[in-house]
């Protein structure tokens, strides 16, 4: 029981029962009226009866006005911590210490506490000397690095919107200011921030400048403490934001800055307009952001790129890729159906052409890449169409791949400018300060794979914080036998083991399922449940229909939606996209996709999954942090509305509780944050006690430490000495440092006085010796100068004499050399002339001989033809003498002889013309063949050239279209003058042989002679009952039936088989030729043939009973009026003639492509010699009809 007076401060426990409600501070306004009136910190009044005053407790004086270091709080509880932050926040004081840990509350406004004057105030100051500030943490990082010669790191954590990014920029600004050099590299390090924010930050519902990636900036310092370089590591960029955003959120800043700040000429070149014109920028219905000037930001980005050595060409290429992404987002897809398969097409639009031109690829290649997928199995490529949803997914994956690789390239480009690798020759070890700005803990309504990775990183950072603050503290106290009260703390090691450390952890199971081609999100969830359902940190789904699983994190339970986990984890691009990039003429896009193109060439390599990459990067980060001395900055978000001076108590207490701040304050207050080994303490503070020797020559270091600390701090102070170390409080270290600085200052003044006297005496001696030396040197100089004048005169005289002598010798030698050159050149020219003359004479001789031999052969042939004509003249004259007089017979024979001679002359001229034409045609054919060799082979074009004549239906049967190349002579019969010309060009027949009559060799006669059963030469559109030709082997008979059915399917007269249940056993990936090889030599087809015959008999009996049925009438209707048949009639006819398809093991029970059918038909003809005649017969019996679709040819 305690008494209250007006103006007293109390704790008021409202007992609402909510999880994150703690007692609130209040001041007593009235206590004399029988009731107690209190006014809490939020301005609400409460009336309490004295008998019910159990929920009121007095407040410690340290909690009334707040303290700078929460270790000094008397009310060591969550309510005291929260009220301390609230009081300081309302006074525009956003920073508070917890020992060396800084708590920063986001003010959501600009405060005048980051000026150059503030930087000077906090330079070279201990924590506690000045009010809490982010500059104090940066200053201690810098001077601890120099003092202890050890790497430092500053871990900035907190939820999204808590101010982590701004804190990182302030630390960078401070380090650049105090390094003292103000060099170009410092400016480059600072200018990297605007570029990374433009490409990696975006407006969210929680933060107007939210970092959608994590980064670790490692700043390198030389031995003088100046910045000499930096290196940036990026983690897990949120690539999905490029394609979609939540309500009231924006895409990445760079898109809006580019559209606002780019010049009209450049925008017209890239085809850009306003932000509202692009689907990728309007998904969240928010294109403007209050407080951001996109136009000014774009200018800052361009200037920063110039500082970081981005060339003008690279800036243009980056803008082209960003514009291509926006145009790709405006592409529209329409659904189609091809061969009973869902497909889609890209609607032609200016955006498609613009995007393709910016990426320097063909628009048709972009359309094919977005609407089809090519699978390569055993050297064969199979192309399958994509549905509209799949097409959109491929487009989004392509866009995310471009932006993600562009972001990685930009980070590498920045590192190339600011990173200076250490010199191998230098023996000085370079020190660094690392700044970790990584995403905070996330728990949304729908949490996906990205949230799992983010929360996994925060689990590791929390474990690092716990290990540093709690575990290491208590373990070291126990090892040193320090009097210490053990404090329980929350350890999340079990959650880390379940997620990533122990065998069969969650990440390994996700990776394993991602590597399986048949792995799905459902199978992954099943494995997670079966492996971790007994783990207390794992929350399985309530039933088999739910797709969510939960994990107990250090900050609470988070439920993850498993749909899409594997696709996001694979993070791979299809081969078609890689091929599209490879075909681009743009060198920049090839450069950013260089690793993917190399991976695509090496088909056996599999790209690492996103979780394995992130886990490996996180492990490297944790190893880096473990070797550094850490400083922690805990950022707190005061409200969800991004408004200043609005403090949400429940939100803040949740962040404090999850960050372990309560345990931190307790252990820091009760513990000893400052500790030194005995040798370090003696070497550092022996200046405080005269006569103490250095540590390496002392035997009793512990006693020396106790002597120093007792003399300077007193025996009653709270310090302890362990086995190997001495433990101090924060204020002890500050007191010792102040006294040490004073003692060193005194010693320094004494040393300076002595050194200055020594320096003055040394300077006098040096001046006197310098004067003597100058006199000596001047005398020597004058003597040497006179000597040099005399020497130069003699040298000049010698030079003139020698030059005259050498000039005469040179003239003589030059004349001799000129004469020799003239003789040699004449000899070589004459030798070359005679060699060429002999070669020309040889060529002429051979050429004349060849011409003479050809002329001789031609004259001999002419002579033979004239002798033959003379013999014919004499024979005719002899014959005509019996019919007329000798004179008339001779005249008639001469006339016919002259006609024959004239005809021979004409034939000779015709042959000459034909030879010239043949030579010209051969030359053109060779040129055409050379051109065709250089062109790539396209299977589709080849099939179209071979069978494209089937597409044009002619007026006569069996003459549909134009014959393929090489078969034109079979298409038409020469008539008239063309026939006569062909007859003239052909060689004359032998006179003694009779021409063979080919009219008897007709296909109808061949069919009537050799076809089995009732088959005729006419074409039928149904499966055969038996092969057309006789085959002894049962396998050949079954193959013949299978070939006929495949031909009917290929021609479109028989539908594809309906595949109701798809069993993915891998058989569809086996090449057609392999399947045909497997059927060779089998002798098990007799039973199948018998089954087919039995089914034929059963069908005949059923058909005889249903002769007058509806189907028979429909068939009759079909035969009479074929052009007006309906779809129902076609379906019934198809069902009626499907009897021959059952039982044939050589046929595929799934729809096949036209290329597979063509392989099957030609493969049987190649591998089964007895099938060649059947195939020729089938091709003769299958002419395309006018109504048949022949696009497959």
UniProtKB/TrEMBL annotation:
Residues 618-640 are annotated as: Actin-binding. GO terms for cellular component: cytoplasm; myosin complex. Residues 908-937 have a biased composition (Basic and acidic residues). InterPro entries: Actin_motor_Myosin, IQ_motif_EF-hand-BS, Kinesin_motor_dom_sf, Myosin_head_motor_dom-like, Myosin_VII_N, MYSc_Myo7, MyTH4_dom, MyTH4_dom_sf. Pfam families: IQ (PF00612), Myosin_head (PF00063), Myosin_VII_N (PF24123). GO terms for molecular function: actin binding; ATP binding; cytoskeletal motor activity. Residues 65-741 form the Myosin motor domain. It is found in: Cytoplasm. SMART domains: IQ, MYSc, MyTH4. Residues 1019-1193 form the MyTH4 domain. This is Myosin VIIA. It comes from Xiphophorus couchianus. The lineage of its organism: Eukaryota, Metazoa, Chordata, Craniata, Vertebrata.
